[in-house]
Amino acid sequence: PKGKGPQGKRITLKVAKNSVRVAFNGRRRLDLSKMGIATFPKCILELADVEELDLSRNMLKKIPNIIEKFQNLMWLDLHSNQLDELPAAIGTLHNLTYLNLCNNKLKCLPEELTLLRNLRTLNLGLNCLETIPTTLGTLRELIELGLFDNALTIIPKSVKKLPKLEKLNVKRNPLPEFAEEEEPIDTVKRVESLYLVEKKDLCSSCLQTCQGERDELHKLEDMTPGPSNKPSFPSLVTPNSSARDNQEEWRMK
Q1: Which of 105, 145, 174, 187 is most buried, by the most CB atoms less than 10 A from its CB?
Q2: Torsion angle, alpha carbons of 104, 73, 31, 7, to 10
Q3: Phi, psi (deg, nearest 5) at residue 144
Q4: Residue ranges making up the domain that contains 110
Q5: Do the domain assignments include residue 252?
Q6: Is 140 among the domain residues?
Q7: What's the pLDDT at 8?
Q8: How many CA atoms lie within 13 A of 113 on its CB side?
Q9: Residues annotated as region Disordered (predicted)?
């Protein structure tokens, strides 16, 4: 076969038109998720006026610069593909408020990403990012930012101090603040030294304390149910109440 890697499913304009849905917010969404697409289908340029585009859970390795034709896009989902880079043209989608790039193979981000000044949600989790540009701090409308499961060793202060940021997920990154985990607190009291003395050698107050603790221990032992001495025969099936009343006597015989 010609070419390398999976060829993927070919999407026709008819299939694409039948995949347009009206979302709950009234926007038109072109939903091509889970379609086995390996190459960006150029035929969907005929539908470039949609407000939402879902290409998630496919086999896309590249998003071409023709993505700039989708100027009405407010919502773009590309999660769970095989993208290792983004085109510079991504920065022309100025109306985007939601961008999901989670679970790809991104190693770096284009500077043009910082031109998306209306972004409120940006998910970059589960990628291969070692750094993120400090200019990401210019996305002042960001409310949620996912950076989890990457290879980040530093989060720029400009990103941490975004004015509207409510949710920042940086879990499972080799960040210095997570390198030294606190030692677990031992909640069990442990005796390092044990001294045995005779009762006659204790003063009255110490003797009273020891007797009190011993009484508490006996109470706990009394409250702990011990093993039942009544014989048990779980494999015997009793057919009626009369047999149940006499089963122990029969068994013992």
Answers
A1: 145
A2: -50
A3: -125, 135
A4: 21-169
A5: no
A6: yes
A7: 81
A8: 23
A9: 220-253
